[in-house]
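Deliverable D5.2: sample structural annotation.
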Amino acid sequence: MTFAPRFTITHAITAALTKVERARGFLDAARLSEEWLPGMREEAFLIQAHHTTHIEGTQLTLEQSEQVLSGGRVPDASPDDVRELLNYRDAFELVASYLGSGEPITEGLIREIHKRLVSGVRGGSAGPGEYRRVQNYVAQASTGRVVYTPPPPGDVPSLMAELVAWLGRASEIHPVLVAGIAQFQLVDIHPFVDGNGRTSRLLSTLCLYRTGYDFKRLFTISGYYDRDRTAFYVALQGVRERGQDLTSWLEYFTEGLSTQMREVQDRGETLILRDVLSQKHGLSTPQRVILGRLLQHPGINLEEVQELLPETPRRSLQRELKSLLEKGVITSEGATNRVVYRLAPGLR
């Protein structure tokens, strides 16, 4: 049997793809400052790594995840949770190396992604990189009720071969839809005893990266899934309830990606505006940092400025704020000890 996904291009899918392409065009054309782009990428990866592992059960907070990825120790964290996060970074680096390569996706590559994800952690005992030889099940975490029984283990090799073969000939389908279909199909086959969700999301990312849809490595769709896991699981299960028609899943997938890309574009536009205003008014580095915060938040006080710039003496920060007032970049309101600084009207 040959894998042939069934779906309909609905208005919702078309609208979402239009938004994705618009955001992609913005990112391709925008002059993205090297001053902030690396930090934005690091933040995007942190959010993606945290949420994709959190969906699968890790208990690290976002702050703990940041500490782990920066090389710090989190004594109260589960060693499995820490290892899982670091494994994700290792697997992501493999996927990122295929950026714009156009090289074919192979079963060996998918197995290597899985191997890197689960080695030494919860899935380690299940044979990292090896297809399952036992029947597995998908159950509700709250009740333990089985909601999906994947194909028998004897069918896994042929189903995976069919998926990979389809990925090699799906050139007439929009790359974003290919990524969504690949993500669902791998989850549906459930080829590994553990780590299928993480592997499927990285497979989706791989599909996007190899076709040039990397969005400068700034998108974090797992955050969208993790914000409403019920909707995520309902979207997956809905395909099975509709006789494997992928339309509803692709509507959910494309809407999620377009939502995340809109957030990326909004932030990019904000930071570009910061650069433009900084050049126009000749702002110092601390002033640029303060302006960046005010472009994203309605107001800031001196204590919050100190948190932003902890290495700068308080009196120096007061002078920076006074200079911003004199240049007409910000305004102030409130009593002496409770002054709140805001972006001057008309600067946006």
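Annotation notes: The first strand starts at residue 138 and ends at 139. The beta strands are 138-139, 146-148, 330-333, 340-343.
The annotation will be released with the project's public dataset once the embargo ends.
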